[in-house]
Amino acid sequence: MNKGTIITDAISYIEELQKNVDELSDQLLKMEATCAKDEKINLEKNDAENEMKMKPEIEVIHINGTKLWIKIVMQKKRGVITRLMEIMSALGFDLIDTSITTSKGAVLVTFSAEVKFCCYY
């Protein structure tokens, strides 16, 4: 065997290996796409099930005087935060410190509130 033959054989072998790498990469991408699609379907199904089951949780702690700390966990829906803020204002609460967190179809709202006026007669 001369050097030219060895180099030609080496190039052929490397090209064959590269072809195998390309084919395996394509297969891997297809498998990942299938798995990602399946996971997305499962997540959407779980989110839908969790949304249907979630009931609001409310916790109120009296800080002092007219100040309260309020925690609400509820289902994530379009406009729910806006509606909550409108209701709190209509009830006479001045929101001092507000925190909103969303995750997997749920909303956690915590805030300190002070009663501006009493709505009872």
TrEMBL record:
Q: Work out whether the entry's keyword set contains Transcription.
A: yes
- In its keyword annotation, does this UniProt entry include Coiled coil? yes
Q: Which residues form a coiled coil?
A: 7-34
Question: What are the subcellular locations of this protein?
Answer: Nucleus
Q: Which domain of life is it from?
A: Eukaryota
Q: Which Gene3D superfamilies match?
A: Helix-loop-helix DNA-binding domain (4.10.280.10)
Keywords on record: Coiled coil, Nucleus, Transcription, Transcription regulation
Q: What is this protein called?
A: Uncharacterized protein
Organism source for this protein? Penstemon davidsonii
